[in-house]
Design goal:
By secondary structure, the chain is of the alpha+beta class. It has helices spanning 26-66, 68-71, 82-93, 152-163, 171-198, 214-241, 247-257, 295-308, 363-376, 381-408, 432-448, 450-476, and strands spanning 98-103, 112-117, 125-131, 138-145, 315-318, 327-331, 342-345, 352-356.
Length: 477
Amino acid sequence: MTASTTSTSDASPAAAPPTPRPRGDWFPQLLRRLHFFAGILVGPFILVAAVSGALYALTPAIEQVVYAHELQAPPTETRLTLAEQIRIAQQHVDGDATLSAVRPAPEPGDTTRIMFAADGLGASESRAVFVDPGTGEIRGDLVAYGTSGALPVRTWISTLHRTLHLGEFGRFYSELAASWLGIVAVAGLVLWAVRIRKTRAKRDLVRPARGVRGYRRVFSWHASVGVWMVLGAVFLSATGITWSAYAGQNVADLRAALGSATPTITTTLGEAGEADDEHAGHHGAVGAPTGAANPATFDAVLAIAQRVNIDTGLIEISPPAEAGRAWTVREIQTSFPTQVDAVAIDGNTMQVVDRIDFADFPLLAKLSRWGIDLHMGSLFGLANQLVLFVLAAAIAAMVVLGYLMWWKRRPGRGTARMGAAPRRGALREAPWWGLAAVGIGAVVLGIWLPFVGWTLLGFLLLDTVIGWRQRRRGASG
């Protein structure tokens, strides 16, 4: 988000007539004005998304510290069966909840997570009882969210990032931020390329300038930091859009049309199955069963699944959600190498009903899975999370620097007026094919990214009003 990079100078009566602008200059001028207005008006939304995203990037590590007692247990030489651990957890909840899933301890020193559906929980929430697999000790009882199993601290920050704790209405803020982030970043990159081609001080656009002050110093920081983080900003924008309500549905429809939707596993016996959701770490969990599941069946189902395609410790075993459905065993390891294979098993015959292997996913489905896990910081663990934190912090800094540039370009010291917007009239200088390209691009963006279309219309109306007021003021003066 950049304020105008051109300053306004007072013209004297003896000044020479303005030099005609070179052909093709209309497009950078249009981008500069778009970059300015988008940055000024959408900047607060991007800033909130960046700050909350930076916090979320650190939550996996925070979770391990805050909930160390629940997540970890002293290693022992003995290990209770899943059935024994489930019965202990059921005695703990004392019939107040319905067993919905089990996540066995993935490594020695970890706890088993027994998950229950209970009254009073929110959408996608479950009551998680943490059991020491060696001794059967109850290590904790917390509310977990979604397939990611986020615990209260991470859930709170995640909800802040996605909806500002405003429910479905709050999703509009994140869609607006995700939709515009990539556009503002790409526009800034084009303006950077135009400027570095013309300027002699090229180093000041790839690293902060030294020995300068005021607007030039802030601009140098904005430009040099921006060019290093632009690809990351576009990536976060593109992957963030897939979570959104409107643009996200457009992405899902396109993937389905291309035959690259994420494969689904059949859980309804004899009928079509339920859809997997690669976004389930941020929202949604499979429905809880309506009846009680036999604890002993969990061990038997797991043994069958491990003979088929389940070969990692990070798994979730889910009993049938209702009569006529199969048990499912899913790998939930979203770090690299990704292991999200799944198998469905008929609990009556103990026969495999269906299986899904990540190796067989279409390429776009794999890329989507990796992109989402990279966005959430799980693909490469701590290194991934630290990079996301730095990137989100840089995006937040870019917004702040943009507003600081706007302030420093104010007409004079001691005034509260902000810097003027870049000059208008770029489209009047554009050739017919340029007007057509801009019009078609605006329509495509408006359809594909509805929030961009609506706000573009708002920018146009605002710009029209500002121009009308300036002309009226000039006529009256």
